[in-house]
């Protein structure tokens, strides 16, 4: 039996989302830019799907622009904000625990003469908003801060950072990678006070290959792709209607069951914590605060990649960090400055609305077996 506990990497596609994609491919397959009836029907459907996603986000449909993924949304937000705000200066503020889709473009910009301040987390992965206030400068053009860390589940002080930017009279634009926060913790872009916000479909039970960028009304980002003028002229190219349809369906359903799903994941997290304390007391909980769907844990002294393979052989699937690391050490766990045994043994458990207690039980039994069977081979 499969016990899937890596929902922060990707989620299984909801049947309703798959059905929406199928209908878009087989019945509503017209090009939304075409002027005859089939095309106009597709255009109306895209309009409705945009409204569905905007409803789930708590913003206006005209502030939502579809992309291919969260990484594209992050890159567009960063490069677009800096081009738009180029007269403000060449200073960027971000955190040391951002997703690679934020850190990599920012590192590239460092090579082009931008100066970057990286806010450092405490031992539990929290960022002090006073750090952001102290880092602001008159030439700060962009602040990029994620809402929920994808490996720790910690909630970062985006609202507080928006306030200090405003209080300081700083011209910086504020971008938020909300990929792990969307439909996991309550927020709207307006409540957060952000100018730009990224989300992704495959983290909320839609297919891979679709995301979106919220752009605050009145903010005129440079176009990401020039061409036929789709997405309000910001991102040209024929709309990926089947992925958009599925994204909208997943967002609509997830929004309707948000409170129930969040409570379910929080209960599973509490259950896992209780079971770990009783059955695997050697396990170290790296942090238990924050979003309900992510639980970082370590088996100190055991190599995480070996434990992941061991559990996989037992049908239990989790990760040793972000799937984007592809086996490389996690910069997020490293930023916590953990002792080496704890860093080596760091694992990420992540839940969804589909996760059940039996999945947690299988994880606990697997960790117990790993501790017993792998002990003699690991230091």
Structure description:
There is one protein chain. This protein is an alpha/beta fold and 379 residues long. It folds into two domains: 15-256, Type I PLP-dependent aspartate aminotransferase-like (Major domain) (Aspartate Aminotransferase, domain 2, 3-Layer(aba) Sandwich); 257-377, Aspartate Aminotransferase, domain 1 (Alpha-Beta Complex), CATH 3.90.1150.10. It has 13 helices and twelve strands. It has helices spanning 15-26, 37-57, 70-84, 100-110, 129-135, 158-168, 189-192, 241-256, 258-279, 304-313, 331-335, 340-344, 357-374, and strands spanning 3-4, 64-67, 91-95, 115-119, 140-144, 173-177, 196-200, 211-215, 284-285, 294-298, 316-317, 346-350. The strands form three sheets. It has a seven-stranded mixed beta sheet, sandwiched between helices. Strands 9-10-12 form a three-stranded antiparallel beta sheet. Helix 3 (70-84) runs parallel beside helix 4 (100-110). The longest helix is centred in the last third of the chain and has 22 residues, at 258-279. The protein is globular. The model has no long low-confidence stretch (mean pLDDT 95).
